[in-house]
Amino acid sequence: MGSEDKEGSYCTICGGISPAKITTKQIEIDGKLIGIDGIDEIISEVRGLGLSDDAATIEELLKRVKKSNYVPSSKSKEYGEALLKEYKDKG
Predict the structure, then answer these.
(1) Fewer CB atoms < 10 Å away: N or C end of the chain?
(2) Is the dihedral of CA 36, 39, 43, 46 positive or negative?
(3) 3-class secondary structure, 91
(4) From residue 7, how far is each of 2, 3, 15, 18, 22 by CA, in Å?
């Protein structure tokens, strides 16, 4: 019985139940396009905080992105810079 025979939608990689709505967008990080789940919602949430300091904005963006996306610790700075750029471009 394949995963398509079961009720619901299942991940073909891990077998877990897929979220109902995935909003992945690719942004350029360190010269590579990387998919970030929920980026638009994350940007909206952080924008709602009214932060004016870039460092605080990066910290909040990274904190939220890491909840549902893998961010290599060795690339945190690059991810933070790319997220801030996306945040400012959406502003």
Answers:
(1) N
(2) negative
(3) coil
(4) 11, 8, 13, 12, 18
